[in-house]
């Protein structure tokens, strides 16, 4: 592919996806059976994968195409190949050694091997060290024995495992030389490549319906003493030699690398869902008129209600702020990963801490925002055809998978309190935590000054982290570590979120200051940033008084300031959402099409209900009359 700038890449790939011969004709899936939905979504996911292959896309381009998976166009009910693409392939690329890469990757790219990432078990997801699937090495046969000790250790959840994948990267407890060596990844064939039947010793199937994404094809998997060749343990990091001797990885958590990558990808991707929801709500809020007619004789557009502006506009600002900061995290991840591959793991702890808190902050903010946007559309937002319920189901899944958000925030907090207490290696230049070892930024708060807001967000983060670090330190003198930690959990989570917010606003401040293409764009970014900051203060007023240096009078001024900013942003709402450049077919919403023809579309979608096929459905006679109601 020739080199293109970011927006050219987006246009190019967007039109490739929308006009692809196997993708361009869409069907409504609401009334399909579970099996039909799966078939439809799988065939579209396969077409996407072929497109990625034909175009020879790099990881950035793949990430843009994959981000279409959230849309109602490509895989409206969940992509059964998402985990193959986002986790299985990257795990092979980063955790298999060179021989293994050359042994498997050809078959992966020609579609013979389709994989999943099988880590979570029925009884353990969060506490990875507690996984109970075992891989016991036998030097005589040079094989691992993979075994599920009981049903609670069944793998449960892996995407694509249900009926799609024929291979899995299985995370299991390694035993060699009679010693437990911790969690390691194994490449395991689970279904026959030709017949797709489960291989001997394997029990596999799909787990059933969920809140959403029902064609993600989540599955279960059990092993009954399945023999796996020695060469199938992924050996870029740790190794088991033929005689069973064991070589440790360069970093104790090297095998957790796929999770770091996926957290970064989820943070980036969930903003796409928010952009779609914001576009739907913005367009609908213009079209919808309701209330006492005004002087012009017309009922007001609902967006002109101040309350509606508060429900919709801050989330449009959030799209811009979160998109920019997650894109920078993605770039940072690329840089750190190449250092780690070169053997330098110094930047890994902070990358892990940042990825954890951004994945948590973004998925939490986006799912709350999408729900607020859904409510902003009144009753019609409750309809499946608005697409808002599916977008919510998508975003909220992100709060659980790839590390439940509370647990991830606690990982970040662990890093922050160590930094605050000086018990971690000092941060590298450009680190996101240097503010903890410097005096607080005492820029006085002034409504209307983004720099003053950023400083206040920083003081909140610093105050939250140092306070909980001190409380933890004090409790450690009087009680066991686990109890001291538990005493502070709620405050630790709040500290990590405050740190995440500071990261986001600092990154965006830099993006705004570096933006040089036009004065008008600069001003618009400033306005969006001001809305985001004023809204952030209004959501956490207590924190800004307690730690941020704001007075009650500042808080009152900020409330008024936010409402003024919203009124200022209101005329730009449609251009700002149009700028996300989301074609109607991608949005796939009765409420969010570009032409605003909402009511006709709503009637049109109702005509698809099978209950409208006959004037009196057969069920009336079969169920109601028979029961003699
Ligand atoms: C070529 C292809 C390219 C494709 C590009 C595609 C781009 C796609 C773009 C968009 C599409 C996105 C579509 C998204 C669809 C995604 C589908 C997702 C499906 C979901 C999958 C899953 O959920 S998989 C399962 C995930 N499970 C988890 O996340 C479990 C969470 N738990 C843990 O991670 C760990 O147990 C936990 C970290 C909580 C604790 O670990 P533990 O071993 O107990 O460690 P601990 O004692 O607490 O800490 C010790 C020490 O280790 C440090 N540490 C922990 N983890 C890491 C790490 N990952 N990296 C580095 N360091 C780590 C920790 O901080 C401690 O450090 P010290 O304090 O001791 O210094
Ligand atoms: C749609 C979907 C797709 C998924 N895809 C995959 C996949 O492809 N592969 C895969 O391996 N897994 C997958 N998963 C599993 C997912 O990674 C786990 O569900 C997730 O990591 C959460 O773990 P858990 O279910 O054990 O939750 P739990 O840890 O049991 O969480 C329950 C509650 O306990 C709390 N809690 C747990 N531990 C602590 C602690 N130490 N401190 C404080 N609170 C705690 C949590 O905060 C939460 O409130 C998927 C899950 C979903 C929903």
From TrEMBL:
<feature type="domain" description="Acyl-coenzyme A oxidase N-terminal">
    <location>
        <begin position="8"/>
        <end position="113"/>
    </location>
</feature>
<keyword id="KW-0576">Peroxisome</keyword>
<dbReference type="InterPro" id="IPR009100">
    <property type="entry name" value="AcylCoA_DH/oxidase_NM_dom_sf"/>
</dbReference>
<dbReference type="GO" id="GO:0005504">
    <property type="term" value="F:fatty acid binding"/>
</dbReference>
<comment type="similarity">
    <text>Belongs to the acyl-CoA oxidase family.</text>
</comment>
<feature type="active site" description="Proton acceptor">
    <location>
        <position position="402"/>
    </location>
</feature>
<dbReference type="GO" id="GO:0055088">
    <property type="term" value="P:lipid homeostasis"/>
</dbReference>
<dbReference type="GO" id="GO:0071949">
    <property type="term" value="F:FAD binding"/>
</dbReference>
<dbReference type="Pfam" id="PF14749">
    <property type="entry name" value="Acyl-CoA_ox_N"/>
</dbReference>
<dbReference type="InterPro" id="IPR029320">
    <property type="entry name" value="Acyl-CoA_ox_N"/>
</dbReference>
<dbReference type="InterPro" id="IPR037069">
    <property type="entry name" value="AcylCoA_DH/ox_N_sf"/>
</dbReference>
<keyword id="KW-0443">Lipid metabolism</keyword>
<dbReference type="InterPro" id="IPR046373">
    <property type="entry name" value="Acyl-CoA_Oxase/DH_mid-dom_sf"/>
</dbReference>
<feature type="binding site">
    <location>
        <position position="159"/>
    </location>
    <ligand>
        <name>FAD</name>
    </ligand>
</feature>
<dbReference type="GO" id="GO:0003997">
    <property type="term" value="F:acyl-CoA oxidase activity"/>
</dbReference>
<dbReference type="GO" id="GO:0033540">
    <property type="term" value="P:fatty acid beta-oxidation using acyl-CoA oxidase"/>
</dbReference>
<protein>
    <recommendedName>
        <fullName>Acyl-coenzyme A oxidase</fullName>
    </recommendedName>
</protein>
<dbReference type="InterPro" id="IPR036250">
    <property type="entry name" value="AcylCo_DH-like_C"/>
</dbReference>
<keyword id="KW-0274">FAD</keyword>
<dbReference type="InterPro" id="IPR002655">
    <property type="entry name" value="Acyl-CoA_oxidase_C"/>
</dbReference>
<dbReference type="Pfam" id="PF01756">
    <property type="entry name" value="ACOX"/>
</dbReference>
<feature type="domain" description="Acyl-CoA oxidase C-alpha1">
    <location>
        <begin position="256"/>
        <end position="417"/>
    </location>
</feature>
<feature type="binding site">
    <location>
        <position position="120"/>
    </location>
    <ligand>
        <name>FAD</name>
    </ligand>
</feature>
<feature type="domain" description="Acyl-CoA oxidase C-terminal">
    <location>
        <begin position="450"/>
        <end position="624"/>
    </location>
</feature>
<dbReference type="Pfam" id="PF22924">
    <property type="entry name" value="ACOX_C_alpha1"/>
</dbReference>
<comment type="pathway">
    <text>Lipid metabolism; peroxisomal fatty acid beta-oxidation.</text>
</comment>
<dbReference type="GO" id="GO:0005777">
    <property type="term" value="C:peroxisome"/>
</dbReference>
<keyword id="KW-0276">Fatty acid metabolism</keyword>
<dbReference type="InterPro" id="IPR055060">
    <property type="entry name" value="ACOX_C_alpha1"/>
</dbReference>
<keyword id="KW-0285">Flavoprotein</keyword>
<dbReference type="InterPro" id="IPR012258">
    <property type="entry name" value="Acyl-CoA_oxidase"/>
</dbReference>
<keyword id="KW-0560">Oxidoreductase</keyword>
